[in-house]
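hey so u asked for the seq, here:
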Amino acid sequence: EPYMHTGVFFTLEEVIEFYNKGGEDPRAGVKDPLMKPLKLTKNEQAALVAFLGAISSDKKPGADFKIPRIPPDGIMTAAGVLIELPQKKGKKK
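ran it, structure tokens below
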């Protein structure tokens, strides 16, 4: 997938190279004056790409998220098990 808000870079290597050069790329638009070159070696850049690849996934965030059911008189465990609590006096179901 393209990277950056404009989709100007197509690989993670390009993004790291862009930041390593301090944001010097006319395709990227206006550069923040606070952006400075990272001065990473080729080995450091490759290690950063490998690290980011290791913590990345093709799975979209939240794709399998389900809104939890809130129990009226109980506690839902992390495993999704409902533990019924005793009814309070004077409360009807």
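DSSP finds two helices and two strands in the chain. The radius of gyration is 24 Å.
lmk if thats what u needed
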